[in-house]
């Protein structure tokens, strides 16, 4: 049994989607970051950086924060969605790190300036808007001749997709990135992804791409 501490954000959805794909039993503990629940002392014992998601593995007693670390841990433990061969593993890790280091942080800034606070800074809107489009072009190029970012469906796709699912917040029209759009819809069609998206609560229709 996995205890999952999460909220309705792309980073939270990465882990709930993986848990659904793995078919693991897990107990959801909503952490409402809008009301400051991430600062609760009990949560800080599990996630010292006061961020979601976090997990506790009841079988091993291990608690982990940071979505990428959690995904690697679960994939390695279950032997799925992270290849065992050196090259395959390296390729998944390459694109997982791309998401953790660029796609997520830059899209997060775009959400702040383009979606939640439009008009506060023309400079920031252009800077992050341009970077978001550059990153989508990188992803579109990567997906030109393959169905998934690392060759086969993996934790890299599960990490990237929830951020792409907020394309409207980023002022992105997926029609301009046909390879991303094809990939986005292929993953959206997976039942585990649809279930994981609505953890810890149903948020209505998932953007169709």
Automatic annotation (TrEMBL):
Could you tell me what this protein is called? Glutathione S-transferase
Q: Which organism is it from?
A: Brevirhabdus pacifica
Q: Which InterPro entries match?
A: Glutathione-S-Trfase_C-like (IPR010987), Glutathione-S-Trfase_C_sf (IPR036282), Glutathione_S-Trfase (IPR040079), Glutathione_S-Trfase_N (IPR004045), GST_C (IPR004046), Thioredoxin-like_sf (IPR036249)
Q: Which Pfam families match?
A: GST_C, GST_N
Q: Which domain of life is it from?
A: Bacteria
What's the family?
Belongs to the GST superfamily.
Q: Which residues cross the membrane?
A: none
């Amino acid at each position: 049994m996995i205890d999952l501490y999460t909220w309705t954000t792309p980073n939270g959805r990465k882990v709930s989607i993986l848990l659904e794909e793995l078919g693991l039993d897990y107990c959801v503990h909503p952490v409402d970051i809008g009301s400051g629940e991430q600062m609760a002392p009990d949560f800080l014992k599990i996630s010292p950086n006061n961020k979601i998601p976090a997990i506790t593995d009841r079988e091993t007693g291990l608690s982990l924060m940071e979505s990428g670390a959690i995904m690697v841990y679960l994939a390695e433990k279950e032997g799925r969605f992270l290849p065992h061969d050196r090259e395959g593993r390296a390729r998944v890790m390459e694109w997982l790190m791309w998401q953790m280091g660029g796609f997520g942080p830059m899209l997060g800034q775009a959400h702040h300036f383009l979606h939640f606070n439009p008009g506060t800074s023309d400079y920031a809107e252009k800077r992050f808007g341009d970077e978001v489009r550059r990153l989508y072009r990188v992803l579109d190029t990567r997906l030109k001749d393959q169905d998934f970012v690392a060759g086969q469906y993996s934790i890299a796709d599960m990490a990237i997709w929830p951020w792409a699912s907020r394309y409207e917040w980023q002022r992105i029209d997926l029609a301009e990135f046909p390879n991303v759009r094809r990939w986005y819809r292929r993953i959206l069609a997976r039942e585990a992804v649809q279930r994981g998206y609505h953890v810890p609560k149903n948020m209505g229709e998932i953007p169709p791409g």
